[in-house]
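Mods, move this if it's the wrong board.
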Amino acid sequence: MSSDTSQELARMVAERFNDMSGQERFMIGVEMFETARTLVLASLPQDATEDQRRQHLVERFYPELSKQPNIWGLSESPNCDDVPVTAIGADV
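Not the wrong board. Structure tokens:
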């Protein structure tokens, strides 16, 4: 895969991450996930139910998991087919 990042910059970033504690690296990952989650939620219609929002999140982040039967713990999966999703910087 080609990269638009120079080798020198990549080395500097790697050094910076190596200098961080495990807790610091973990918190960066948590913050990145929360940002991605916020973007996905912002792409959903305001009238989507909580179950529909949850289903769209799982489908976006864990597509294989979302295909498992009764993952929602409900008597049936929420119907999200009629709720359009606007992709923000994603190819869906």
